Amino acid sequence: MTDDAAAARAAAEEESALSHPPVDPDATVTYGDDPDQLIDLYVPRGAGGPAPVVVVLHGGAWRAPYDRRHISPFAAFLAGRGFAVASVEYRRGEPGGGAAVAGRWPGTFDDVAAALDALPALVREHLPGADPRRVVLTGHSAGGHLALWAAARHLLPADAAWRTDGPPSLRGVVALAPIADLAVADKLGVCGGAVRQLLGGEDHFTARLAYADPALLLPTGIATTLVQGRTDIDVPQAVAESYAEAAAKAGEVVGVTLLEDVGHFPLIDPAADACAVVAEEIAQLAW
Description:
The protein is α/β, with parallel strands linked by helices. Helix content is 35%, strand content 17%.
């Protein structure tokens, strides 16, 4: 396939995924005082008995214009499959830096850590039919990075504010086209330099990798699957493969599900077959 054809197909996939109207949640709760410190909750549909909880972290290169609304059809799709769903919003983009700036250090990481810490109590109080003892963490693209990072907080350097004493109580992680290896993604120029921006720019990049790069925080001891389209030109397959190789070197097996003729966005597009594959991967860990 020519570069022009690949770009055209990727654009069509993105258009399809983003064409669905946002789906309002059943409830929205806060985990902090900032307007972005919110979690949308979707009640499971048709589930018999307490349903597993799927925590969703949206992508968008950690940039402010991309919020959780674009992934709400995916969240609703999972709720329709019988999962209780918690879709997390978090701060993105540096204040005053313009819409093109990716991430906010340390706010993006502060928020994901705080949301995950607050979630069990919020689920028990606000999400009927959910079982907070069975939680799967998923995320797409930049959200896949954050999901892998959140599952590895117990491996952070000792001076990290986000470090936990032990691994989180998760059934597993399903990371979708994740920016899983920050160093490799940076070399490949993923999302127009977003990785370097996330860590605060050139002066901080190397020093902060140890606190932010999931590929350096292994083995987690948590069941992990990466789902990746082979024709993804936004976050190439090489990024996921590099994370899986790092995990193997650390003595951990990470599953990698590669989907033929699938790019970046079908993984979260309820109209795409790939989305059903994602739901099945989550179900294998959740149930």
